[in-house]
Amino acid sequence: MEFHVTEVSKKEIELRIEDEDYSLADILRHELLAIEDVEFAGVQPPHPLLRRLVIRVRAKKGSPMKHIEEGALRAAKRVKELREAAEKVLP
After folding, report:
1. Which residue, 6, 25, 39, 75, is most buried by CB atoms nearer than 10 A?
2. What pairing do the DSSP bridges indicate for beta strands 38-44 and 12-18?
3. Mean of the pLDDT values across residues 68-87?
4. What is the 3-state secondary structure (H, E, C) of the chain?
5. pTM (2 decimals)?
6. What domains are defined for the chain?
7. What are residue 8's phi and psi, to 5 degrees?
8. Of the candidates 18, 14, 6, 29, which has an alpha carbon nearest to the alpha carbon of residue 53?
């Protein structure tokens, strides 16, 4: 997995993620939208032949990169909780 910042401004950032499934970007988007200072978080639908995702984040206030970091930590915590719940019910 590779991350590339393709656009950046004071209130907005665009990231390109290479070689990753769409579900990762969707989980991150979901967690970003739960952050009060995030105005917009969206994922561009991937091209069917390319494993490339584009995520755009716009902040109401604060740094959009800091919001991505917070969203990624929240997503990691959520995935850990889901894994633990699944391990309890699966043999």
Report:
1. 25
2. unpaired
3. 94
4. CEEEEEEECCCEEEEEEECCCHHHHHHHHHHHHCCCCEEEEEEECCCCCCCEEEEEEEECCCCHHHHHHHHHHHHHHHHHHHHHHHHHHCC
5. 0.84
6. 2-89 (3.30.1360.10)
7. -150, 140
8. 18
Residue 62: name the closest of 53, 54, 71 by CA.
Answer: 71
pLDDT tens sequence across 5-56: 888 899 999 999 888 888 888 999 999 999 999 999 999 887 778 888 899 9
Query: What is the C-alpha to C-alpha distance for residues 82 and 50, in angstroms, rounded to an integer?
Result: 28
> What pLDDT, on a 0 to 100 scale, did the predictor assign at position 12?
96
Distance CA 84, CA 8 (A): 36
> 57 and 41 in contact (C-beta within 8 Å)?
yes
Residue 28 and residue 6 in contact, taking contact as beta carbons nearer than 8 Å: no
Cα atoms in the 13 Å half-sphere on the side-chain side of 49: 0
